[in-house]
């Protein structure tokens, strides 16, 4: 493992997680858990596993994200398969799940996850709320397949996955909550040239010159797909909070606010739908 760490440190000097990456890749090459490595630190490694480990370290040395090499990433309490067709689930997005769970009514409710990717947000909510029905949509066929297979692997039967470009294939349906981690990076952001994001699909990352194209679209149309007082919750870039709150207010949402992620950055904004003219909304 020290060989792997040293190789990664010299290949990717800007990455400060070489030791962790080497450990996760070794565990994956051995098809064991990281705990196994701590339990049996001196165990000899077979030649098939050694070659696999060397291949993994070479791939990582070229910049490929660890999750694309192992094909797996933990999110919330779930183990998810990932592929280069989708974004790798981030810890920041767990804040979106927390905020959704805080706002869901106590009884059964319907939720739609827009742009589900691996299914991370939809599946995490589904695992906490077996009484709720979740529809997860994505425009990318491989993502739909992946989210479906992640739902099955985690035995979550209260999630349905559908291929749709945002609301295109859910016309006429209404939900108690819409959640989304849409693309929100500026098209020309220098951030796209660094680290793992270079390997992730642009379709999951970028949204116009200010990064807000998809968020604008979702906010402007969301009301048609929400029940009265239903919630819309969106992940966004850490500088986009004020713009997203303005969009929500202009579209007629109330109780608009922003919540920080685990690193203390403004990350999730949302509001409650208030169909115009409803007495219940004016009184709040
Ligand atoms: N927060 C993500 C990142 O840092 C961007 C994800 C997104 O666009 N939804 O790469």
Automatic annotation (TrEMBL):
GO terms for molecular function: nucleic acid binding; peptide chain release factor N(5)-glutamine methyltransferase activity. InterPro entries: DNA_methylase_N6_adenine_CS (IPR002052), HemK-like (IPR004556), N5-glutamine_MTase (IPR050320), PrmC_N (IPR040758), RF_methyltr_PrmC (IPR019874), SAM-dependent_MTases_sf (IPR029063), Small_mtfrase_dom (IPR007848). Residues 4-71 form the Release factor glutamine methyltransferase N-terminal domain. The keyword Chaperone does not apply. Pfam families: MTS, PrmC_N. Residues 109-188 form the Methyltransferase small domain. GO terms for biological process: methylation. It catalyses: L-glutaminyl-[peptide chain release factor] + S-adenosyl-L-methionine = N(5)-methyl-L-glutaminyl-[peptide chain release factor] + S-adenosyl-L-homocysteine + H(+). CDD domains: AdoMet_MTases. It comes from the Bacteria. Substrate binds at residues 181-184. Its EC number is 2.1.1.297. Methylates the class 1 translation termination release factors RF1/PrfA and RF2/PrfB on the glutamine residue of the universally conserved GGQ motif. Belongs to the protein N5-glutamine methyltransferase family. PrmC subfamily. This is Release factor glutamine methyltransferase. It comes from Salinimonas sediminis. The lineage of its organism: Bacteria, Pseudomonadati, Pseudomonadota, Gammaproteobacteria, Alteromonadales.
